[in-house]
Every structure is written in C-alpha cells, then in structure tokens.
Amino acid sequence: MTGWQILAFLSGLAGLCATIAATVSNEWRATSRASSVITATWVLQGLWYNCAGNAIGALHCRPHLTIFNLEGYIQACRGLMIAAICLGLFGSVLALVGMKCTKIGGSDKNKARIACFAGVDFILCGICSLSACSLYAHRITTEFFDPMFMSQKYELGAALFIGWAGGILCILGGSVFCFSVADSFSRSHSQANYIYRGAASHSHITAYTRGQTKPVKEGHAADNSSSSRVQHFDKNAYV
C-alpha cells in the first residue's frame, strides 16, 4: 500500500494546486471574442476581479468593490473554494504524517487513523470544489439559455474546468487513502486471528503430550517394580 499512498498523495496535491489556481483565476466566465477588433472584444469575470480585454492585447482588471453588492452565488462560491483550499492543506499535512513511508506519526495503527482523516479531508476538498464550480456553471448556463434574459451572456471559463479537474483528483486521492486504511486494518485482523489460532493449537499439542507422558511414566514404574520382584525372587532361590 505504500506505492498507492504515494500516488494518492500526489493526486491530492495536484488537485489542491488546481483548486488554488481556479480560485485565483479571473476566467470563471467569459464573453465571446469574435465581436469587434477596435473596441473591447471580451470580458472576463472571476470570483475576485472583473477584466476587460481587446484584440490589441490590453487587459484591464478591477476588483469587486464591495462584498455586499455581490450576488449570492458568487459569495457562496468564494466560501466553498476557500473551504476547499483549507481542507486540502490540512489533508496534505495529515497525509505526510500518516503515510507508511514516513517516520513520524507513531505506531502503524495511529498512522492508519491519520491517513484515514487525510483521505476524508481530500474528499471534502474535492466535494467543495466541485460544488462551487457546478453552482457557477449552472448560473451561467441558466442565463445563457434563458430567452428572457436580455443582459450580457457569458460562456464557461477555463477556471471552471480546472476546478472540476482538481476536485476529481482530490476525491480520487482521498478514496485511495481510505481504502488503504481499510486494507491495513483487515490485514492486522487476519494476523491477529492467525496468532490466536497458532497459540490455541500449541496449547492443545502441549496438553496432549502431557497426557501421553503420564502412562509412559506409569509403565516405567510398573516395569521397575516387576524387575525388583524378579531380583528378590532370584536371591531367595539361591538361598
């Protein structure tokens, strides 16, 4: 399971990096870039900044001025992505402590529990990232296909796909950690049963050998008594 745990840690770490990249990205949604050459041809919007660019290469960004004027889904996505990053960081630290290839964490049983907690953190990190990206994508698609929506319509940005990929990687890494812990517990249980059965068979064999030695000793005592009687008989016969 050491190799699987290393792969799970790398998968979770890659998912955490993708989650961070998606969080700080400004391309959660984007307009079409085929409108004009002179004026601003596209608009990029993220969780923290709104950017406008043109075909010349100029890109101007401004942050969201106040948190109270933001729409509810943007605030929810912010909270989910921040929670995903925090869970991923805790999961990475716990994974380093609980992996079998490291020298910290105590006994194998304690390391298995720590690795299980790391797997749960990675899974929750992936769920938060997937939930935030899915919520944002649902809002974009709803506005895009709504015929009554007359404002500017946007398309899915690259940050959403990065966030989805990061969430899937985190869930895969956390699942491998949890399955490795279950496998280690099953192996320890089977070893305990083997030791118990071996001890029981050893005690049974010892009791059997003890029971067999008693008749042998009694037989030797009977032989010694009969030989002594023969010796006494021979002595009297010569007298």
UniProtKB/TrEMBL annotation:
Membrane topology: Multi-pass membrane protein
Keyword field contains Transmembrane helix: yes
Keyword match Aminoacyl-tRNA synthetase: no
A GO term from the CC aspect: bicellular tight junction
Annotated compartments: Cell junction, Tight junction; Cell membrane
GO molecular-function terms, A-Z: structural molecule activity
Transmembrane segments: 80-102, 114-137, 157-182
Signal peptide start-end: 1-22
Gene3D superfamilies given in the database record: 1.20.140.150
Coiled coil: none
Keywords: Cell junction, Cell membrane, Membrane, Signal, Tight junction, Transmembrane, Transmembrane helix
Family annotation (InterPro entries): Claudin (IPR006187), Claudin_CS (IPR017974), PMP22/EMP/MP20/Claudin (IPR004031)
Pfam family, one: PMP22_Claudin
Function comment: Claudins function as major constituents of the tight junction complexes that regulate the permeability of epithelia.
Protein family (similarity comment): Belongs to the claudin family.
Protein name as catalogued: Claudin
Organism: Poecilia mexicana
